[in-house]
Amino acid sequence: MTVSPADKKSRPAGAIAISGEVVRVAVTGIDVTGRVFRDAATVLMLDRCDCVIRTRFQPILDSSLLAVFDYPRADPELRISQGRVLLNDSEMSSGYFQVVMALQFPQLVKVTADLRESQTIIQKLDPPPVAKILERPVTQSKVRRSERVVIQIPVIVFGQNANGHMFEEKTSTMTVNAHGALVALKTEIHLQKPLLLVHARTQSEVQCRVVHRKEIDPGRLEVGMEFASSLPSFWGINFPPEDWTPADR
Fold this sequence. Notes:
By secondary structure, the chain is mainly β. It has one helix at 115-118; strands at residues 2-3, 15-16, 22-30, 36-47, 50-55, 64-70, 80-91, 97-103, 110-111, 122-123, 149-150, 154-160, 166-177, 180-185, 194-199, 205-217, 220-227. It has two domains: 2-128, Thrombin, subunit H, CATH 2.40.10; 135-234, Thrombin, subunit H. A hairpin with a 5-residue loop joins strand 7 (80-91) and strand 8 (97-103). The radius of gyration is 20 Å and the shape is elongated.
């Protein structure tokens, strides 16, 4: 599934710190269905490394989130922090999730919990199992695949690295087709792991999985990513099938 900017909800209002600064946070993680997500979350409480947010997605307990904070006094070296998910409760009325996380780096502002937020009714849910499709071996698809096109398109890749931490890396495609792309990454990742691929020009995004990895240079990987389903329109290119010949015209 691909999501265009028009499909996304408007950016939530930032929280107000005790100092009067507006505090925003963008989070990236893996939800309980096994999909990589990114969201402009709402900060409900922030005190150094303790943080509570409201988000549209339910991350896996004890997993890592990548939190990018935005406020005037943010330290450039500390505002991007890994966060460990300690609680991921569902709000019965809103359909959102309240997530408690422990940050790797302390933040320089303090946001206190609003009384109305502390009175929110919370329903604890057992997370469903991670989608089994992520564990399946790589098999040869029987679907008629499209021709690969050698082209450099700027993309942003979100996912989980080999150490279990969420990452964000800007790169460019090496080849693309209607079913995925081949890119070069500096981040070490494993086969079959889910990724979120964002087209840097259109901001459209698509869920993928790693189906190929090969070291091409020290600290640099060639990574093949397969879309969850065929999306010829994602790249804005008309792809002929692999077995196309001029006689097919």
